[in-house]
Specification:
seven-stranded mixed beta sheet, binds adenosine-5'-triphosphate, about 45% helix, binds magnesium ion, single chain
Length: about 290
């Protein structure tokens, strides 16, 4: 059974709910080697965290092994998984600044068998400046890459998602130096493409100077509003610009998606039959199928 083979939205929702509840493991193909994606857009509130959290949750529910690295001092991804991230919690800060091992600082996400989170506490807000003042120039962008290389040499993971803050500072640069794939969530609203050029230039800079393997592999349309023409127009122009990098699945605006984090949950477990959950499952499946 596959939830997205059903032809009506209601049937899809019902099938997706069953899918998530039964935890039909093995439904998503595991990649030949670990895929590491950074979810980036310096524009705030476009759905980066929601995307990282729900794609990771979808994949973990399908039995894949997933690590989410919370690289945002706001710690929203940590909150969404119900993971502690008050000050002094070991997490991303310790990995970047004190070179602690990822395996030492990550925690298992409650309610999942194969999902781990490297939490971000507010300490991380100071990491930028600490890295700049204490770490040599040539080493500074590579702290995350080094930690991740060491981790992946020892631990088997299918997917790693890095949730970036809404800026193009040293944290995001560390993310771009550490991964091969960038996933850009684009909110379906009027100013959507503004700022994307700047992001693309930063990615190009990172590819030229830090990480020749870096590429934008995936674009996801978020907060699609089916009641307005504007969303459809934005989606068209994004598809025109980015071509087949844009996933077929677009994420609709959905109250359940917005509510889930306040319950310390992804929407995949909070309301698996909601339109948002169905869409994130479909997006996750597409990513695994695109390889
Ligand atoms: P920041 O730049 O602050 O890190 P972000 O890009 O990570 O933000 P999110 O935190 O994922 O964006 O989303 C911004 C807000 O929009 C949140 O309140 C979130 O719950 C809400 N939201 C995200 N996706 C949806 C959706 N599909 N439907 C309704 N609300 C959504
Ligand atoms: Mg965020």
């Amino acid at each position: 059974m596959s939830f997205d083979d059903e032809d009506t939205p209601l049937a899809q929702a019902a099938a997706a709910a069953v899918y998530v509840r039964r935890g039909l493991k093995g439904t998503f193909a595991a990649p030949a080697s670990t895929r590491v994606l950074t979810v980036a857009n310096q524009k705030g509130g476009v759905g980066k965290t929601t995307t990282a959290v729900n794609l990771a949750a979808s994949m973990a529910l399908a039995g894949l092994k997933v690590l989410v690295i919370d690289l945002d001092p706001q710690g929203n991804a940590s909150t969404a998984f119900g993971v502690d991230h008050q000050e002094d919690t070991a997490g991303t800060y310790d990995v970047l600044v004190d070179q602690e091992a990822i395996a030492e600082a990550m925690v298992a996400a409650p309610g999942f068998d194969s999902l781990w989170v490297l939490p971000a506490s507010l300490d991380l807000a100071g990491a930028d400046i600490e890295l700049i003042t204490t770490v040599p120039d040539e080493e500074r962008p590579f702290r995350l890459r080094e930690a991740l290389d060491n981790f992946l040499a020892e631990y088997e993971m299918d997917y790693v998602f890095v949730d970036c803050p809404p800026s193009l500072g040293m944290l995001t640069i560390n993310a771009l130096a550490a991964v091969t794939e960038v996933l850009i969530p684009i909110q379906c609203e009027f100013y959507a493409l503004e700022g994307v050029q700047q992001l693309l230039r930063t990615i190009e800079f990172a590819r030229d100077r830090l990480n020749p393997e870096l590429e934008v592999s995936t674009i996801l349309l978020t907060m699609f509003n089916t009641n307005t023409n504007l969303s459809a127009q934005v989606a068209d122009s994004v598809r025109e610009f980015f071509g087949d990098k844009v996933l077929t699945a677009a994420i609709p605006r959905s109250t359940y998606v917005a509510e889930a984090p306040s319950h310390g949950q992804s929407v995949m477990t909070y309301d698996p039959g909601s339109t948002g959950a169905v869409a994130y499952l479909a997006a996750a499946r597409e990513i695994t199928e695109r390889g």
